[in-house]
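Recall that a protein's primary structure is simply its ordered list of amino acids. Everything else, from secondary elements to tertiary packing, is in principle encoded there. The following example makes that idea concrete.
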Amino acid sequence: QVQLVESGGGLVQPGGSLRLSCAASGRTFSTYTINWFRQAPGKEREFVAGVVWAGGSRYYADSVKGRFTISRDSAKNTVYLQMNSLKPEDTAVYYCKASTYWGQGTQVTVSA
């Protein structure tokens, strides 16, 4: 059993930055690929970024390449999503996922 808790969301102006965190408890991430997804109102949930815990390979959706960076901290069993140059279309609830486990989500709103 894995519990995932996201944090770091909020309201930011276009062009601004946020860093999301996904902290795991109950089990370490060591055997997982950790993914960030997002879901905007009226839209399907979509993949944003992922990191293979063992080895560190990273993957990004085309829409966030060059703006978002996913990273991990083994000591804290935490995955981060650094989001720069935010756009209004990045507004969504952001979720982390490990295997079949999902967090509760954190709201990101990009608005002037």
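The mean pLDDT is 94. The chain has no helices and eleven strands.
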